[in-house]
Amino acid sequence: MKNILVPTDFSENCNKAADLGVEMAKLYNAEIHFFHLIHTPVDWVKLDKLKEKRYPKTLKEIGSAKSALRELEKKAEKENLKCRTFLEYQIETTNILKHSGHFHHDFIITGSSGTKGTARELFGSNVEKIVRKSDVPVIVVKEDEVSFPFKNIVFVSDFMEDVSGAFEHVISIAKKCNAHIRLLRINTQTDTNSIAAGLNPIKRFLEKFPDLKNYSMYVNNEPSVETGINTFLRHEPADLIALSTHGSTGFLSLFSKSIAEGVANHSALPVMTIKI
Question: Between vectors from CA 72 to CA 68 and to CA 75, what angle results, nearest 5°?
Answer without folding.
Answer: 140
